Amino acid sequence: MTDQNPPQAAALSESTGLPKPKLTITYCTQCSWLLRSAWMAQEVLSTFALEMGEVSLIPGTGGIFEIRLDGELVWERKRDGGFPDVKALKQIVRDRIDPSRDLGHIDRVGR
């Protein structure tokens, strides 16, 4: 039997030729956090559609909620005291993939 779905090559940035960032959200299925996770993934993709190589959701158990960017843990529900709001999540992603980028009203709300 042959593999019908060979692994895809990582998406590469046109400007640098380097792999584009990969964001993963691991969420607890027992806690019903799929919709929250999907919404956060959608928000990241709506802001960073061209910059992201992949955004994926990973089901887990035991109250897990972790967000990783290129394998680096950037948010952990237990460690960081709950869930990030979308503003914080977008700023975390921006600060790691394009620190000079202006997020528009997100960077100015509450200042």
Please describe what this structure looks like:
This protein has 111 residues and is an alpha+beta fold. It has a single domain, classed as Glutaredoxin (3-Layer(aba) Sandwich), CATH 3.40.30. The chain is built from 4 helices and 4 strands, in the order βαβββααα. Helix 1 links the parallel strand 1 and strand 2. The longest helix is centred in the middle third of the chain and has 14 residues. The mean pLDDT is 89.
Topology:
Blueprint: E1 22-28, H1 34-47, E2 54-60, E3 65-69, E4 72-76, H2 77-80, H3 86-97, H4 105-108
Helix pairs in contact: 1-3
- Find the structural class using helix and strand composition: alpha+beta
> Percent of residues in helical segments?
25-40%
Main sheet: strand order: 2-1-3-4
- Please identify, by name, the CATH architecture: 3-Layer(aba) Sandwich
Order of helices and strands: EHEEEHHH
Q: Span between N and C termini?
A: 59 Å
How much strand content do the residues show? Answer: 15-25%
CATH topology call: Glutaredoxin
Domain unit count: 1
The CATH superfamily label reads Glutaredoxin
Query: What do the pLDDT scores average to?
Result: 89
What is the molecular shape?
Answer: globular
